[in-house]
Fold:
Amino acid sequence: MVEAESRALLNILAPFFKDDGIELHYQSPERWLARGEVFRQLNAASLDRVIGRSIDTWMPQGPSANQLRRLQTETQMLLYTHAFSEARQGRGAQAINSFWISGCGALPKGWQAPQELPQVVDDLRQPALTGNWGAWAATWKRLDAGPVAEWLRAARQGTGLELTLCGELALQSWHGPRNGWLSKLAGQWQGSNTFRQALASL
Structure:
């Protein structure tokens, strides 16, 4: 979908969403930003986790989930016979009959942006999403020999270390303070291989 068509669709849906206390803002042809209290306590999955899978498992969860499901149904009904949809069908384009919500929540009070952004390694994401477990295992071996080894070296030098592993439904974090104790602990990790065993078991 091109920008002009996306903006036209946003103009169609914006008043409709506003009735539910949701403001829509254009960001890109395939992504809009939405703001409203309805999203504050909503747990929602990213679209790439849902594509090609049953959406029932990944429907938004939270106090306002039913309100948003109703809005999805009403959006489908609105667009079903709308001139916008007929124009797309007339040129052989796929129908647009719903929307997907992700990236919801609210920043906690007093939150400040970190001075240093975290290093994100998402090499495991695609193999996990596609169920390619051979590639997933091979990627783990490469990460163990590369970034994980680098983090352990940094920890031995007393650099603050925090490692978070994220799955689809949970996360696990390891961290330590920036002092000599962390350096000693890192040496114990290296010697006993406990840290690596913990990573390999996840």
User: Anything to note?
Assistant: The longest helix spans residues 133-156. The chain has eight helices and four strands. The longest strand covers residues 23-28. The beta strands are 23-28, 31-35, 161-166, 171-176.
